[in-house]
Write a structure and sequence with these properties.
- The structure is a single chain.
- 9% of the residues lie in helices and 38% in strands.
- The protein is built from 5 helices and 20 strands.
- The strands form 6 sheets. Strands 2, 3, 5, 6 and 8 form a 5-stranded antiparallel beta sheet that branches. Strands 4, 7, 9, 10 and 11 form a 5-stranded antiparallel beta sheet that branches.
- A hairpin with a 5-residue loop joins β12 and β13.
- The C terminus is likely disordered.
Length: 400
C-alpha cells in the first residue's frame, strides 16, 4: 500500500491554528470529596496510605490550650516522561467550597524537550487560613500539540504540628505528614489524529497531477448501466492491455500513404524535488549524482566505428531529434537505509528513514521540512525473533 507521511512543520507532530501558531490541548481534573476517576473528570483514587479527602483545615486550639494543632496542606502537580518539544502550562485553582470568590490560582509555564519533567508546587491552606473549611482543587495541564505525550501526577501532603501552648510557646510536640499520590495514565495528545490539519502544504490539483505523472496514470469516464458515471484510474500500460482489438483493414484506403519515422527524444529527464534530507544530500555530494532522479542525453552517447574511430559529437543530434521530454513532480525523494542486526552481525530486512537536514556547521541533526513524502510500508510486529541465524533478520516494519 502507498502511504503519505503527514507533516507540515519541523519537529514533532502538532497542529497549527489558522494564524500559524501551535494549537494547545487542555486536560482538566478536579479533586473534591468523592472523586471517581477520569470518567467523572476526577483524579483517580489515591495510592497513598491515607486518603486525605475531604481536604479540611483542621487547625484548632489557641496558645492557651494544650494541645493545639496547626495544619498545612500543600500540593505538587507534575508532568513526567515528556515526549516532544513545546510549552506546557500547569495551572491550579484552590477553592473554598460554599464561599463565592474565595479562590487562589497558581500558574507556571515552561518550554520543554523530550525527557524533561515539570512540576508546580502550591499551598492549599495554612494554619490561619479558613479554619474548618473544605477545599476543592481544579488542575489544568495545557500542552502544545507538539508535546506528543506525558504522564501527569498529583501529590497532596498534609502536615500537622502539635504544639504545647501552656507557656505560650511554640514548642513542637509532634509532626505528622500524610501524602496521597495520584497518577493518571499517560496523556497522548495524538490519540485522535486530524489528517486535515497535518496535510503537507500542497494544492489538491497539484497533488493529483503529480500522482498521475509519477505513476503514469490515466483517468477515463465510464457510463454504467444505471446511466451513472464512474471515473476509472489505471496505469497507462494496464489501460492499453484492457483495450479491445479491432481489425480495420477493410476500412483503410492504402492507395495513398505517407510514412514518417519516429523521432526519438534528444533528452529525457525524470526529476523529484530537490532533496531536503541528510542521507540524500550526502549521497549526492559523494557521488556527484542527483539522488532519485534519472536522465538521458543523446549527446553524451558515442558510437564506435569498426576501425575504432569515434563518430563526431554532433552525429546524435540528427538521430535523436525529437526534442526534450521532462517529467517532474513535487514529491520528496528520501534515501532509506537498512538497520543493522543485533551485535552488528549483519543487516536486517528493516529499512528506516531519517527526516533531518544536512549538518549545516553545527554537527547536529536538526529537523527539516521537505516536500510531501510517499512511501510503501509493510507493517508487522517488532520482536526479538530471528528468521535465521545467518541472516540475523528481525521482524519489523519494512519499507520498499
Amino acid at each position: 500500500d502507498l502511504y503519505m507521511w503527514l507533516h507540515n512543520r519541523k519537529g514533532f507532530m502538532g497542529y497549527e491554528s489558522t494564524t500559524g501558531e501551535i494549537e494547545r490541548k487542555t486536560i482538566i481534573r478536579q479533586l473534591i470529596q468523592d472523586g471517581n476517576g477520569t470518567e467523572d473528570n476526577e483524579w483517580n483514587h489515591y495510592s497513598g496510605p491515607t486518603d486525605l479527602r475531604p481536604l479540611i483545615n483542621d487547625s484548632q486550639g489557641t496558645l492557651l490550650d494544650s494541645p493545639n494543632f496547626r495544619t498545612t496542606i500543600q500540593g505538587t502537580i507534575k508532568t513526567d516522561s515528556v515526549v516532544g518539544d513545546g510549552d506546557i502550562t500547569l495551572e491550579v485553582t484552590v477553592r473554598v467550597l460554599g464561599y463565592a470568590g474565595t479562590e487562589i490560582k497558581h500558574t507556571k509555564t515552561e518550554s520543554l524537550s523530550s525527557g524533561d519533567d515539570f512540576s508546580l508546587s502550591f499551598t492549599i491552606c495554612t494554619p490561619n487560613y479558613q479554619i474548618g473549611k473544605q477545599f476543592a482543587i481544579e488542575t489544568k495541564i495545557i500542552a502544545d500539540t507538539t508535546i506528543s505525550s506525558y504522564t501527569p501526577s498529583l501529590v497532596i501532603t498534609k502536615t500537622r504540628i502539635e504544639q504545647d501552648g501552656i507557656f505560650e510557646t511554640d514548642r513542637v510536640i509532634n509532626v505528622s505528614r500524610y501524602s496521597i499520590d495520584s497518577t493518571l495514565s499517560s496523556i497522548n495528545n495524538l490519540n485522535y489524529i486530524n489528517p486535515q490539519l497535518l496535510m503537507p502544504d500542497m494544492k489538491i490539483i497539484d497533488f493529483l497531477s503529480d500522482i498521475f505523472k509519477t505513476y503514469n496514470l490515466v483517468a477515463f469516464e465510464e457510463r454504467l448501466n444505471d446511466n451513472s458515471y464512474l471515473i476509472n484510474v489505471k496505469p497507462l500500460d494496464k489501460y492499453y492491455d484492457d483495450g479491445v482489438q479491432y481489425d480495420i483493414t477493410p476500412y483503410v484506403d492504402i492507395s495513398e500513404t505517407t510514412v514518417s519515422r519516429i523521432s526519438p527524444y534528444n533528452t529525457i529527464e525524470y526529476k523529484f524535488s530537490e532533496p531536503k534530507t541528510f542521507l540524500a544530500i550526502n549521497q549526492s555530494q559523494v557521488t556527484r549524482d542527483d539522488w532519485g532522479n534519472m536522465d538521458f542525453n543523446a549527446n553524451n552517447i558515442r558510437f564506435a566505428e569498426e576501425d575504432g574511430d569515434i563518430e563526431p559529437e554532433n552525429t546524435n543530434s540528427f538521430i535523436f531529434d525529437g526534442g526534450n521530454y521532462k517529467v517532474s513532480n513535487g514529491f520528496e525523494k528520501m534515501m532509506f537505509e537498512r538497520i543493522s542486526g543485533r551485535d552488528y552481525r549483519g543487516l536486517t530486512d528493516i529499512q528506516w528513514g531519517w527526516f533531518v537536514e544536512d549538518n549545516k556547521g553545527d554537527n547536529f541533526p536538526n529537523p527539516t521540512l521537505g516536500k510531501p513524502l510517499l512511501h510503501y510500508a509493510i507493517k508487522t510486529e517488532i520482536d526479538d525473533s530471528y528468521e535465521d541465524a545467518d541472516r540475523n533478520t528481525i521482524t519489523g516494519i519494512e519499507f520498499d
